[in-house]
Design brief:
The protein is mainly alpha-helical and about 130 residues long. It is built from five helices and two strands.
Length: about 130
């Protein structure tokens, strides 16, 4: 995905993003009984990518590592990162494929939401979460 594609993605109407996010939130509520906050969704994606399943009583550093793993996974759908190997702790090693755009906080959140929605388009469309981007 080129920088032009990122700009076009960020031009997605806020109402469309919100509608799609509400669909994801409804699915999360049904599946996990929790709202779809960005952090919660990235954590779950990180758990899935790590392949170890949910483990109760994780320490703060481990939770943060899983959230970052989820962040890389969703940014991979935008072509911003790619997996290049795995470390000894079982976490993917990620390489940035292009620079991240310089964005304000609100736009960063929108990009994360769009990347999460794109991730779910690819993996959970049959569950009624995704709508194609």
């Amino acid at each position: 995905m080129t920088d032009d594609h990122i700009e076009a993605l960020l031009a997605t109407d806020a109402a469309e993003v919100e509608t799609r996010w509400q669909h994801l939130d409804a699915w999360m509520q049904r599946r996990f009984g929790r709202p779809a906050t960005i952090e919660a969704v990235l954590f779950l994606i990180g758990i899935q990518a790590h392949g170890s399943g949910y483990q109760p009583d994780l320490d703060r550093d481990r939770k943060q590592s899983l959230i970052m793993e989820g962040t890389y996974c969703v940014f991979e759908t935008l072509g911003l990162y790619e997996r290049v190997g795995m470390n000894d702790d079982g976490f993917w090693i990620w390489e940035r494929t292009r620079p991240l755009p310089d964005l304000d906080v609100e736009t960063q959140e929108k990009l994360l939401r769009l990347a999460i929605l794109r991730y779910f388009d690819e993996f959970l469309d049959e569950a009624g979460v995704g709508h194609g981007t």
